[in-house]
């Protein structure tokens, strides 16, 4: 009900097709994550040459391959019973490594790269916040769809990076606690909540990694990668604030019926 259409039509079908082969080969899910990261690094090398359209196409294809492996690692982990806190963290870190490599490659492709770096860092910070919020809202909706109306207890963090990740995830998911309380008090309102908020959750796909991948390629094809960073920093930040406010309003309305 809330899945990004590019996942439904492209990424997930390819990952499902690869899953039996990965299981037969007994490939560890962390290796799948690292393979995806390798595709992302290759995309970064291609985007360093963004002024040549062929490299932009190659960069886009490598990033699509990363999305496929990014979806495949979780499927392999669940099917093989190899889910772990380390795997969850590695999956998230690989995602950031991919975008950092692409951003850095684009920055270094400019002769006067220092002001471009400042823009990319600011855009990347906005990206991190937007993505954490987007994933948190999706996870909360899916949790409520399962009839779970309380935030899950975080696993004990083993080092500072995981503690920081858990803290940010908890902070950004706190806005929906009133919705959880209302649904826990009146579970019969669950379906009204799901039906009322699903269209907005689908709209949040604007903040998905898939759409950022397409945005980077489009800006490079236009001939100015800076357009993407301005879009991410200014337009997407404004839209995230607006959509967060509208989502909370829709949640309140759906559980008040």
Layout of secondary structure:
Layout: H1 5-24, H2 29-47, H3 53-80, H4 85-108, H5 113-145, H6 160-172, H7 177-185, H8 190-203, H9 209-222, H10 226-255
Helix pairs in contact: 1-3, 2-3, 2-4, 3-4, 3-9, 4-5, 5-8, 5-10, 7-10, 8-10, 9-10
Distinctive features:
257 residues, mainly alpha, globular, single chain
Query: How many runs of DSSP E, i.e. beta strands?
Result: 0
Shape: globular
Largest sheet: none
Q: What is the terminal separation in angstroms?
A: 21 Å
Helix content: over 70%
Please write the string of helix (H) and strand (E) elements. HHHHHHHHHH
- Portion in beta strands: under 5%
Write a concise synopsis of the structure shown:
The protein has 257 residues and is an all-alpha fold. The protein has helices at residues 5-24, 29-47, 53-80, 85-108, 113-145, 160-172, 177-185, 190-203, 209-222, 226-255. The longest helix has 33 residues, at 113-145.
